[in-house]
Specification:
This protein is mainly α. The protein is built from three helices and no strands. The longest helix is centred in the middle third of the chain and has 22 residues. The N and C termini lie far apart (111 Å). The model has no long low-confidence stretch (mean pLDDT 82).
Length: 73
Amino acid sequence: MGEAIGIGLKVLRDWHVIFILILMIVFISLANYVIKYKKKPRLPKAKAAPAPAPAPEGENKEATDAAAEKQNK
């Protein structure tokens, strides 16, 4: 039994085993990242707001005339 433990420790300390173990951990982590990766949804571009409809000339002219009279007084 003691001999099997000694052989097991020698195997675990071998650089080949350590290298392959590290390589497997990196590979599994990369695969896990790729599987769970989700792209963020693109935000829709804000459409330019349509220009407000121009006010009829008669109403607009009266409003500016009234404002001009208040400033003159």
